[in-house]
């Protein structure tokens, strides 16, 4: 009889533990933030701070900005090293990179585009930014010729504020101009091969006053992708992650919780 009671007690304890375990909230996905051209990972600082405060694991990845294929392979390796689900967030050219890198990655659950490109196969950053009128980027660029004949492109510091981050404080834009990362001409012209937004839930946020990627191009890409949610920030510049981190965090967290 005592043995039976012990067994019954152990079974009850196991059942209680099982119920308690199942009641624990599911682990939050890791948010991987990918910067684009003329920026670096520090541009996400405001977004990282808020996401971390809200309990999300966050990685602000370093995007090499050398070529679409190799940039995507670098991000894919990072994704594979992360246990659990991942939400990829790409800014500008970083949108192309997350689109390519998500291919074959079973733990990627959503894509979030921050003033970013959602390319279809055969499209590039250059072709998409020129699809509609409005971009003034070409007139602000300063090329640096590389040994292999390609070029690195920077935005001229004196033109950076108005072109890239018009709604950010001038002092902040000056720091961004000084620390910007150049992108190669090859990266901007490389054509996408894997439009993973056709399979994965996608979310889009862009500024109506973006001078790098015209707002009309952003609307076109979001509509084509049947984005689950599209947010247009009135008067927002290309540097939304700096000037409007709150709106970006809200969209990321919506994407993360909609699984």
UniProtKB/TrEMBL annotation:
<dbReference type="InterPro" id="IPR052897">
    <property type="entry name" value="Sec-Metab_Biosynth_Hydrolase"/>
</dbReference>
<dbReference type="InterPro" id="IPR029058">
    <property type="entry name" value="AB_hydrolase_fold"/>
</dbReference>
<feature type="domain" description="AB hydrolase-1">
    <location>
        <begin position="31"/>
        <end position="250"/>
    </location>
</feature>
<protein>
    <submittedName>
        <fullName>Pimeloyl-ACP methyl ester carboxylesterase</fullName>
    </submittedName>
</protein>
<dbReference type="InterPro" id="IPR000073">
    <property type="entry name" value="AB_hydrolase_1"/>
</dbReference>
<keyword id="KW-0732">Signal</keyword>
<dbReference type="Pfam" id="PF12697">
    <property type="entry name" value="Abhydrolase_6"/>
</dbReference>
<feature type="signal peptide">
    <location>
        <begin position="1"/>
        <end position="22"/>
    </location>
</feature>
């Amino acid at each position: 009889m005592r043995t039976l009671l012990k067994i019954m007690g152990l079974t009850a304890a196991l059942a209680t533990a099982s119920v308690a375990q199942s009641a624990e909230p599911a682990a939050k996905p890791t948010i991987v933030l990918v910067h684009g051209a003329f920026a670096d990972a520090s541009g996400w600082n405001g977004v990282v701070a808020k996401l971390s405060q809200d309990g999300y694991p966050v990685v602000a990845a370093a995007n090499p900005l050398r070529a679409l294929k190799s940039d995507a392979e670098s991000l894919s390796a990072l994704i594979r090293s992360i246990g659990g689900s991942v939400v990829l967030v790409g800014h500008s050219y970083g949108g192309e990179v997350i689109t390519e890198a998500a291919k074959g990655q079973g733990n990627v659950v959503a894509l979030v585009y921050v003033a970013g490109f959602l390319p279809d196969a055969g499209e590039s950053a250059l072709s998409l930014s020129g699809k509609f009128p409005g971009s003034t980027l070409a007139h602000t660029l300063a090329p640096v010729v590389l040994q292999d004949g390609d070029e690195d492109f920077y935005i001229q510091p004196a033109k950076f504020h108005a072109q890239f981050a018009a709604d950010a404080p001038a002092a902040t834009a000056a720091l961004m101009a000084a620390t910007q990362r150049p992108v190669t001409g090859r990266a901007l012209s490389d054509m996408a091969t894997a439009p993973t937004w056709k399979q994965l839930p996608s979310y889009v946020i862009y500024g109506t006053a973006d001078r790098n990627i015209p707002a009309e191009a952003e609307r076109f890409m979001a509509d084509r992708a049947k984005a689950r949610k599209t947010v247009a920030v009135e008067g927002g510049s290309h540097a939304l992650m700096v000037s409007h981190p709150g709106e970006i965090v809200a969209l990321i967290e919506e994407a993360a919780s909609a699984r």
